[in-house]
Amino acid sequence: MSLPSARVRKIRTVTKSSLDVEMESNRKKVIENRTQLQEVEEKLFSVEEKWIKNEIDRDTYDRWYNDSILNLKGAIEKLSNDQSQAFSILEKNLNLLTDMRHVYSKSNTLQKREFVNMVFDSNLHYESGIYRIPTMLGILSHNHLKMKEKGLLIYEKKEGPLDEDPLSGESGITFALLGDP
Q: For the residues 72-101, what does the mean pLDDT come to?
């Protein structure tokens, strides 16, 4: 059981495009936050003068500094992180989708259980020496006839939400199975 290489290419393209959009959005947010930080730092200069002249107490100055400056600097740092690591993880692991046996064998017990539940919608059962399923994740069902010929699996297809190709998002494939075990 594996994904066809055409599907893997499609997933790679869609995921890379999503990462590119996210990175561009982050770049714009960094520019906005830097502009805002510069404005806040200018305002903070007058607050510092008031603190130096004892017109405000240290707590007021610290609160203003912590609420404004530190939050903006943290957001800028977070958004400025190098996303090349995400690309390298994607490239390293995406080809594993063509070899689900490897993914399954490298997974721990909980990951294997989650994988089986996700692919077969928790409907996998064993009867008369063969596995039987009424539902299967559509993206992996392309070779169910080959598995039936080998006596490994009987797929008695029922329509359902697993017929759609989950490429990304909340209902997408859980790529946590591809991480280092």
A: 78
What DSSP string describes 86-115?
HHHHHHHHHGGGG-HHHHHHHS-HHHHHHH
Asked whether the predicted pLDDT for residue 163 surpasses 60, the reply is: no
Domains: count for the chain: 2
Distance CA 138, CA 100 (A): 15
Contact 151, 132 (CB under 8 A): no
In terms of Cβ atoms closer than 10 Å to its own Cβ (0-12, 13-18, 19+), residue 10 is middle
The set of residues, in sequence order, having a beta carbon less than 8 Å from that of 71 and lying 6+ positions away, is none
For the chain, the average pLDDT equals: 76
Q: Which residues contact 140 (CB under 8 A, 6 or more apart)?
A: 1, 2, 3, 100, 119
What does pTM read for this prediction? 0.50
- Structure tokens, 88: 């390298």
C-alpha Rg value of the chain to the nearest Å: 26
- 81 in the same domain as 9: yes
Which domain, by its residues, includes 170? 100-178
